[in-house]
Amino acid sequence: MPDTAVHVGSGKVRELFTLDDDRLLLVASDRISTFDVVLPTEIPDKGRVLTGLSAFWFARTEEIVPNHLLALRSDGRSTECRRLEMLPIECVVRGYLSGSGWKDYRATGAVCGHPLPDGLTESAELPTPIFTPSTKATTGHDQNIDRDQALELVDGELYDAAERASIALYRFAAAAARERGIIIADTKFEFGTDDQGTLVLADEALTPDSSRFWPADEYAPGGPQASFDKQFARDYCESIGWDKTYPGPELPDDVVAGTRARYVEAFERLTGIEFDAYCAEPDVVLR
Ligand code: Q0Z
Q1: pLDDT by position in tens, the chain (length 287)
Q2: Could you tell me which of 100, 176, 93, 177 has the C-alpha nearest to residue 131?
Q3: Which residue among 40, 102, 268, 282 has its CA within the 20 to 30 Å range from the CA of 157?
């Protein structure tokens, strides 16, 4: 990293730096969060897996919508990106009924203004993917909003473009992942606009941190599904009776190794590229 990179923000597991007026550096750490708490133990290479996956999808979805990716750094965990004006909403697409979508459906029969058929069970596949935007909470959980609430925050044409791009991105990635044994139940996109006002996909995209990945061979609607990547860590945290408040527990070595293996497996299944090849030369995911 050049010494001119200025730290401008921290996410739970990522850091953001300014490179110059036009460029940012996004750095994915090896930190893991579960039950909304960042654990004290890192998962080696998790940041590389997420950075590589995101870059892989950026390279393959350029025709659907332009994205912010300028370059991958040789460390495999850092992305140079275009600095954009970010939309103040999270662009969520759901293909399956889980998390807050399931909660809202159970309470109201609808999710973010989308009426859904009666009788759906938890984790059911939806008849068609739905766009369920949310507000970006600075603390606590993002709040689901409907189209009218979103239109108080975002220009209508831009909102419609973000919805169309989000649904198209989800359809493309979910179909590709399903052929490789992974269900992308839902996913969250962040968009910005460039100085021409063009919609640009930003942040990370279609990673296990911004999506729910489920192993397809274990899919059983009617209850919650195992997480492709975090299930070992969650099971361990439950087994020791942690109350899910800060601070989280240290993970034992076998849980760390099992979790790392799942991240690497997700990377290799989805990209068809060996993770070691990515580490040797990150640009392999862009070709
Ligand atoms: C992303 C975030 C954090 C990682 C701002 N291309 C862009 N242009 C302008 N802003 C952003 C981006 Cl990606 C941007 N975030 C989220 C925060 C670490 C990502 F602290 N915030």
Answers
A1: 656 899 999 999 999 999 999 999 999 999 999 999 999 999 999 999 999 999 999 999 999 999 999 999 999 999 999 999 999 999 999 999 999 999 999 999 999 999 999 999 999 999 999 999 999 988 888 999 999 999 999 999 999 999 999 999 999 999 999 999 999 999 999 999 999 999 999 999 999 999 999 999 999 999 999 999 999 999 999 999 999 999 999 999 999 999 999 999 999 999 999 999 999 999 999 99
A2: 93
A3: 102
Dihedral in degrees, nearest 10, Cα atoms 225, 229, 234, 239 = 100
Asked whether 9 lines ligand 1 (CB < 6 A), one says yes
Name the helix (H) or strand (E) containing 16: strand 14-18
Ligand 1 atom at shortest distance from the alpha carbon of 81: 6
Ligand 1 atom nearest to CA at 204: 13
Q: What six digits make up the tokens of 59?
A: 């390279």
| Sequence-separated contacts (24+) of 231-237 with Cβ below 8 Å | 231/262, 232/258, 232/259, 232/262, 233/32, 233/34, 233/39, 233/259, 234/34, 234/35, 237/34, 237/35
Decide: 203 in ligand 1 pocket, CB within 6 A.
yes
The two tokens of residue 238 are 């439950």
